[in-house]
Amino acid sequence: MMDMDPQMAAALQTFFEESRDLLQDMESALLFMEEQGADLERINAVFRAAHTIKGSAGLFGLEEVVRFTHRLENLLDQIRSGTKTLSPGNITLLLSCGDHINDYLDRLVSATPLDQHFLSEDLRLLAALQSALGENSSATDPSLTEPSLTVYDDVESRTEFIHEVSSDAPVKSAANWHISLRFGQDTFRDGMDPLSFLRYLQQIGEITGLVTLTDALPALSMMDAETCYLGFEIAFRSVADKASILDVFDFVKDNSIIHVLPAHGQIAAYLKMIQQLPEGDQHLGEILVAVGSLTPEELQKALALQEGSDQTGQHLPLGEILVEQKMVQEPVVQGALEKQQQQRESKNAERQLLRVRAHDLDHLVDLVGELVIASAANRLFAGREDLESRLESSSQVARLVEEIRDGALRLRMIDVAELFQRFPRVVRDTARTLNKDIRLEISGEGTELDKSMAEKISDPLMHLVRNAMDHGIEPAEQRLAAGKPAQGSIILHARHDSGGIVIEVSDDGGGLNREKIRRKALEKGLISADQLLTDPEIYALIFAPGFSTADTISDISGRGVGMDVVRQNIESVRGRIDIDSTPGRGTTMRIHLPLTLSIIDGFLVRLAQDTYVIPAEAVEECLEYPQTVGSVGYMELRDQPLPLLDLSAVFKKAELSETRRNVVVVRHGMERIGVVVSGILGNQQTVIKPLGKLFERVPGVSAATILGNGDVAPILDIPTLIQRHYAISAKSALVH
Amino acid sequence: MAKNILVVDDSASLRQVVSIALKGGGYNVIEACDGVDGLAKLAAADKIHLIISDVNMPNMDGITFVKTLKQKPEYKFTPVIMLTTEAEEEKKREGQAAGAKAWVIKPFQPQQMLAAVSKLVLP
């Protein structure tokens, strides 16, 4: 693909994206109709998707896609016209066809060769389409003995045609032709310009002689400016064959008289032409001689022949009466049209979207990040100078930068509906595999989240949904026995929640089995027998590495390696997951995510000379360090013990010497801890910079940021700090 | 001054390829994603010399689009190329009745589109 014209490469990229969107639309429409019954509007949408893919694939020379979608389109056309029904079998077939095209496009993008699996699927689908169309599949259709789709390594060779020079084969020698043209009266009204056809004619050959016929022109007073009265007799020299020459006038052929004859060719053919044309025979003959298509002798011969035919009464009268026809406008119900248009304008507003490369957007967000830092520096220096006007203008800049930042971040946001859109299909297919009747409910569309976060969260979410279907929802008999409807339901819900996003996966199944999880965790040595655990703590155990309570390993939710990976993935985007479960009623997995990946509200603290950032969402309150605290590592907060974490110990620094210290109370999930710091610097927008390789593995630090004065400040990883602290104190408790 | 061609099709990649081919032929291209957008682009443009429109589009299909624009005196003589498929003979007749007298059958090669446009409008 490297050598391809960059413009075409970009267009091909558009084609891939567009086709995926269309296939997704097609799938959604099919799934909807499977549930709610067929409706014409959706059938049309499915048809249009296949149709558009076919049309565009042709432009890129992807003949295989054209052939495959053509068959698909045939079936859809019959369903649309009512000849065939949208049976469950046909829905499944159409879904598989969509998958197959998707698979093909994926392979094309990644230059993955086709394997046997792909080719046999291709043959299977073609045969299925054929039998769905009611065609005899045993018929010897060549397309069935060979797969319709083939992947070539060199996409570029198939897209280079744009530079191909049109058909001038140098071996063919030029021939002389005579072209006789009488443009139809409506030519102008049809939007055609006779002159442009003649100019185009010159692209395929040379006009050696031309006479414009004005015979049909009426007197000036009778002339209608919109009517075409023109005719041409043309001597033409070209390597093109007759069909190619006729093809030039394809658009006007219905209403015009067009003759293409070899020059000096059969006299009888010329005679026939002369007879059919409205002008005087003699006059026309002279023109033919004048343009060089006939010699005077040939003309004489032709006229002699005509006299003969005159006696048999076949001669057409000269100068046919031209009847002027007023073009009748199509009656259009204007009112209905306007109404229709109004209804659609609002829809259309949503369609005014612009595709932007993710990379460009990332770059923009990066720059805005730098701008935020620079603006903080600006404000800092302005503050030092203590010039009121300077301070004022710099805070104005800071405010605008913040607005730009918000705007830039919004550009990265996608509707959660986009994340959810693959799930109807997943649930449908999984339910079939599990042989369970399960319904999916989706709510909270309109909630927006960062696109890169959506990408990272997609697989974990899929895993949770499958897990809920496999382990959560009980078999129908069991459900009925428990007095629940036989059909299980999975609910996907998204909402905004205090500066973040919450995505919930709920099922109405049997709920998590507390005892079973506890037993298993004991077996695996994850907990000790005497450990007292709250319900959330026990539920959280299923996210421990290697934990799986499924009695049998199934294909659906993996082999016990899933849930810890789910948690890791979620935590990698600074999210967390918790579980609510009621025995017999169901389980809700709740994923909490930050709004964006690149900027957070930071809470700046000072530790000796250094600045650290605590994500503001984790901060609960700030206290003064109590004088009464001993070396136990606990303080009292509203009659509750609060474990204290000394950052200087974590980062192996000299113990804090200040007498006035502060405690920042941070929370992760249910756990709270007091972080001891030298001082509090306050809130600041913090641009997250990834840590270099060297610092990637520093425990307790998740990333870094650059402060206004240019200093680098680590961003504390509160969940890890809390976990480590509890782990260490648990260990030391055992030692005591 | 290059002539303005309006390309109305819901497929962005089709518009892109057609646009590359036509620009290569010396035309200026304006794109619209459906009939409603097409009418908006017509209203906003100085002069459109030729219109290429798909038949099958959401919001407003090509037939309605052509009917509507042919009502406007300024576009009465503007040539329209309709994009159809072989399966849409009926649509083709409807399109012709609406005022689209030229058509190109999908799928087509970019070069074919440039040829069709050159027959109707000089670059």
Note down, in words, how this protein is organized.
- Chain B: It comes from Acidithiobacillus montserratensis.
- Chain B: This is Response regulator.
- Chain A: This is Chemotaxis protein CheA.
- Chain A: It comes from Acidithiobacillus montserratensis.
- Chain A: Its EC number is 2.7.13.3.
- The complex is a heterodimer of chains A (736) and B (123).
- Chain A folds into five domains: 6-163, HPT domain (Four Helix Bundle (Hemerythrin (Met), subunit A)); 175-311, Alpha-Beta Plaits (2-Layer Sandwich), CATH 3.30.70; 358-412; 415-594, Histidine kinase-like ATPase, C-terminal domain (Heat Shock Protein 90, 2-Layer Sandwich), CATH 3.30.565; 599-735, SH3 Domains (SH3 type barrels), CATH 2.30.30.40.
- In chain A, 46% of the residues lie in helices and 19% in strands.
- In chain A, helix 3 (63-81) packs parallel to helix 5 (116-132).
- Chain A is elongated, with a radius of gyration of 39 Å.
- The two termini of chain A are 67 Å apart.
- Chain B has 123 residues and is α/β, with parallel strands linked by helices.
- Chain B has a single domain (4-120), classed as Response regulator (Rossmann fold, 3-Layer(aba) Sandwich).
- Chain B has helices at 12-24, 35-44, 62-70, 89-98, 110-120; strands spanning 4-8, 28-32, 50-54, 80-85, 102-106.
- A five-stranded parallel beta sheet of chain B has the order 2-1-3-4-5, sandwiched between helices.
- In chain B, strand 3, helix 3 (62-70) and strand 4 (80-85) form a beta-alpha-beta unit.
- In chain B, helix 1 packs across helix 5 and helix 3 (62-70) runs parallel beside helix 4.
- The longest helix of chain B is centred in the N-terminal third of the chain and has 13 residues, at 12-24.
- Chain B starts with a strand and ends with a helix.
- The interface between A and B is large, with 62 and 53 residues.
